[in-house]
Design a protein that fits this description.
The complex is a heterodimer of chains A (194) and B (470).
Chain A: E1 6-14, H1 21-24, H2 44-47, E2 71-74, H3 86-94, E3 98-101, H4 106-113, E4 118-121, H5 124-131, E5 138-142, E6 147-150, E7 155-158, H6 163-171, H7 175-180, H8 183-193
Parallel strand pairs in A: 1-2, 2-3, 3-4
Antiparallel strand pairs in A: 1-5, 5-6, 6-7
Chain B: H1 5-13, E1 14-17, E2 23-26, E3 29-32, H2 38-46, E4 57-60, H3 77-93, E5 96-98, H4 108-114, E6 123-126, E7 140-143, H5 146-155, E8 157-160, E9 164-171, H6 180-191, E10 199-204, H7 206-210, H8 213-221, E11 230-232, H9 237-243, H10 252-262, E12 275-280, E13 287-289, E14 297-299, H11 313-326, E15 341-344, H12 352-362, E16 372-375, H13 380-388, H14 391-398, E17 401-402, E18 423-426, E19 441-444, H15 447-456, H16 462-469
Parallel strand pairs in B: 3-4, 3-6, 4-5, 6-7, 9-10, 9-12, 10-11, 15-16, 15-18, 16-17, 18-19
Antiparallel strand pairs in B: 1-2, 2-8, 13-14
Helix pairs in contact in B: 2-5, 6-8, 12-14, 12-15
The chains are: A alpha/beta (194), B alpha/beta (470).
Chain lengths: 194, 470
């Protein structure tokens, strides 16, 4: 996992609620056996006409040149639905390192963190303020300080991040390294359980 | 202070609590399938590891298997590659696989319970959000991502932050025509698709106690559709009777030992939940969804809400967008609306009782000419039992297509898809845009409601059909 400390970037707004994992990456694209290459199918059915990648839908944000950046900003309950980690992989592969919303579904949040994509939970009011910004506006996210700032106005909010997960993100550590270091404790636990 | 059922099982499985962080949670049983496991196997291999406890992982192929001609090679090359990869990975790493052609093959959340692998008091995970199904046995069961599948492979543990607890009490008798699918659709419509996010739910009360194990599984299965980490029900005589004699259930003296442990698995009378919800069973009617998340549901004889009565702007936009996709009008009732497809199956409603309910309703009748009906048993064992009871004959007579075990048209990953723009009454769990195939319009309902529509060709209040019978 790549370490993530700070992001300063423009953002792509997706002001819709309950964006589910079937929209993020439809099930028919889950047939790969590697983690790579999912970005091209991110939001596939919202992005293209008739499932044809040569026919982008002009009204969808990912197809609009005025929007770009490493941050995706979406309405509440982002990532609801299935546990497919492919959703997080497709977001990362597309080039987003953070998703901002006022509410995240549980499994998506875990999956994102396990792949170095930061879910930033902000208040409804702050989310609306972001949506009101010009498309050229930038956001700054500081993982260490746990803050997100709308650079044009200086308006800032802090967000929650589990201290353990924060250490992982800042250093690019993953949970498996941690769990492997606990093997003796786990074996001891198993003996006591029986 | 007493403990909740959830706390009892959780506390027993915490290997270590990380200061200011999640807990290292020990996993008793790990189910895997072809879609969310290949990257985890690859990850383990890249790290030069072997599976820590391969005997505690059980595999099946369900998501992208075809549901006809399963004896032939899979035609879709990508699906075939994934299924072949599962066979190779399981062989290499010593994991028991109930793959295509095995008498135990089926949807992972159907086979776990029917084989007696799922047991009270266990922690169970699978790279699939509907793992919550297994909670019906009084287990902590939840869906995980592929990185977590890899964690279980490597250490038989996952890192989890303890969720909050919610109890939903359902008391009283159910109206005729109302089944467990209606109960859970009612709850989700009431609290919304995100109403239980952050919580682990225990379903309790006299109504729940009166339900069969299969009916309980349907309820726990859809816990994720309101955002819950999982759902569970305290084990009781129904649970023990269901389990006894199943392939993996303890036998003889071990059964007696386990039984005494299982009987202690309940929430103490003075246990405190972070949230409680009380529901009067009699107020639940047969349900149907009209939108593109399972929270957009209503009593089948009700009308779709008017958008200008919804105060929250986000929710209002959501409804308008959903109705646009669904081609439905606000303020209208769905009763009498023609549908083109009926899908009876999925990890929510593909068990033998579901098939029996459908058979009882359609026996001697024919499906409507304008409707295509797919009925897909959840496992080879369900299919075998249905055949033994002659249910397949009833379905064939009614003009239903009987398919072989798999996830089928629940998720548009295999050949079973609903064509764009058409309506499908489905017993599955998600009505998301494109879930059953690009452009497909899904109306979630119970097996009874689905069967009624299969016969009439239109959205039908099952109670009217039952009255006609009398």
């Amino acid at each position: 996992m790549k370490a993530l400390q700070k992001i300063k970037s423009r953002f792509v707004p997706l002001p819709m609620e309950n964006i589910d994992t079937d929209q993020i990456i439809p099930a028919r694209f889950l047939k790969a056996t590697t983690r790579d290459g999912f970005g091209k199918n991110l939001f596939r059915d919202w992005r293209y006409e008739q499932d044809d990648s040569t026919k982008p839908k002009a009204d969808f944000v990912l197809n609009q040149a005025i929007y770009a950046g490493e941050i995706l900003v979406a309405g509440k309950n982002f990532g609801c639905g299935s546990s497919r980690e492919h959703a997080a992989w497709s977001i990362l592969d597309y080039g987003f390192y953070a998703v901002v919303s006022s509410f995240f579904a549980d499994i998506f949040k875990n999956n994102a963190l396990n792949n170095g994509v930061l879910p930033v939970t902000v208040s409804d009011a702050f989310l609306q303020k972001i949506f009101q910004q010009e498309s050229s506006a930038t956001l700054s996210i500081d993982v260490e300080k746990q803050t997100i700032t709308i650079d044009a106005t200086g308006k800032q909010e802090s967000f929650e991040l589990n201290p353990y997960k924060k250490t992982c993100l800042l250093n690019g550590y993953d949970d498996i390294d941690f769990l492997l270091s606990k093997k003796d404790t786990i074996e001891k636990f198993e003996k006591e359980l029986i | 202070m007493g403990k909740t059922l959830f706390d009892k099982i959780w506390d027993q499985h915490v290997v270590e609590k990380i200061e200011n962080g999640p807990s290292v949670l020990y996993i008793d049983k790990h189910f895997i399938h072809e879609v969310t496991s290949p990257q985890a196997f690859k990850g383990i291999e890249q790290r030069g590891l072997t599976l820590f406890r391969p005997k505690q992982t059980i595999a099946t192929a369900d998501h992208n298997v075809p549901t006809i001609n399963q004896h032939l090679p899979i035609k879709d090359q990508l699906s075939k590659m994934q299924v072949d990869q599962l066979i190779e990975n399981c062989g290499k790493h010593g994991v028991e696989l109930y793959g295509l052609g095995h008498p135990y093959q089926g949807i992972v959340h159907v086979i776990g319970p029917e084989l007696g692998i799922t047991q009270p008091g266990m922690t169970i995970v699978c790279g699939d959000s509907h793992t919550s199904t297994h909670g019906a046995f009084g287990a902590i069961a939840f869906g995980i991502g592929t990185s977590e599948v890899e964690m279980v492979f490597a250490s038989q543990c996952v890192l989890q932050t303890k969720p909050k607890t919610m109890r939903i009490n359902i008391e009283g008798e159910l109206q005729s025509g109302v089944v467990s699918k209606d109960i859970i659709l009612y709850i989700i419509a009431k609290i919304s698709a995100s109403g239980a996010t952050g919580y682990f739910v225990e379903y309790a009360g006299s109504t729940i106690r009166s339900l069969s194990m299969e009916a309980r599984m349907t309820i726990c299965n859809m816990s994720i559709e309101m955002g819950a980490r999982g759902g569970m029900i305290a084990p009781d005589e129904n649970t023990f009777n269901y389990m006894q004699g199943r392939a993996y259930a303890p036998k003889g003296i071990h059964w007696d030992d386990q039984l005494s442990v299982w009987k202690k698995l309940y929430s103490d009378a003075d246990a405190i939940f972070d949230k409680e919800l009380n529901i009067d069973a009699w107020s639940i009617q047969p349900m149907i969804t009209y939108g593109t998340n399972p929270g957009l549901g209503m009593a089948i004889n009700a009308s779709i809400p008017l958008s200008d009565t919804i105060l929250d702007e986000g929710e209002r936009k959501n409804l308008i967008k959903a109705l646009q996709y669904m081609g439905l009008e606000e303020g209208k009732s769905l009763i009498g609306m023609p549908i083109q497809h009926v899908f009876i199956g999925s990890c929510t409603n593909s068990r033998i009782e579901d098939l029996r309910q459908v058979a009882a309703l359609v026996k001697g009748k024919k499906k409507h000419d304008s409707v295509k009906v797919m009925i897909v048993p959840g496992s080879q064992q369900v299919a075998k039992q249905a055949h033994a009871e002659g249910l397949d004959h009833i379905f064939a007579e009614a003009g239903f297509q009987i398919r072989q075990a798999g996830c089928s048209a629940c998720l548009g990953m295999n050949d079973d898809k609903i064509p764009a723009g058409t309506y499908c009454i489905s017993t599955s769990n998600r009505n998301f845009e494109g879930r059953q195939g690009a452009g497909a319009r899904t109306l979630l309902a119970s097996p009874l409601t689905a069967a009624a529509a299969a016969i009439t060709g239109v959205v039908t209040d099952i109670r009217e059909m039952m009255n006609e019978k009398l």
